[in-house]
Amino acid sequence: MPDQRPSPDEWDAEPVAVPVDHGDGESDTTEPPADVRTYDRFSKMDGAQYDRVNDFLRERTYITAREWAIARLCADFRTETGVEMTKIGRNLPDLVSFMTDTYSPQAVNQARASFEEKVELAGATFLYGAMCDFFTADELDDLMYEVTEVAKFLLEVEGVDLAVDDELAAEERISSVMRDVRAASDALRHDGVECPNCGHTIEHGG
Question: Which residue intervals make up region (Disordered) (predicted)?
């Protein structure tokens, strides 16, 4: 079946908002909850416009600004019984300045599901690229550096304080994992055949 997913050019350039029904026909003027008032994950983005944030993400990732914001909020407003989607949607403009409309719980869940799907698709694409021998070991290291820099930047925008030593340690752990992935994929692809480099027979698991 042909892939029906939209191309990057068709991704939403504006947040898709569904007005929240407050039940009484009037706008909700109740003061936001305390955890909403003190939430400052995106304080570095105060004054930013949705379109600018969305363009930045579309140039570097597979997600949109609304998916980024709501995924972060779903992680931060998770309780033992699940994600507080009503709270997130109703207070969205107070939580993230570049999100100017409230969302229904259904719209929050839709953005959350879209983020999850894109992470899964991007992850499968990346892992295949790492395992299929398309990249040399050095090229894979360079690729990991570039994508890690983007991920770290987004975390820093969210207010995560990354110490230099912690950054270096994380990068080394990631590089180590990718070396293991490459070695394991070599074994899978060449199991029972001669190594193209040294000529010995490669046995899977041996």
Answer: 1-34
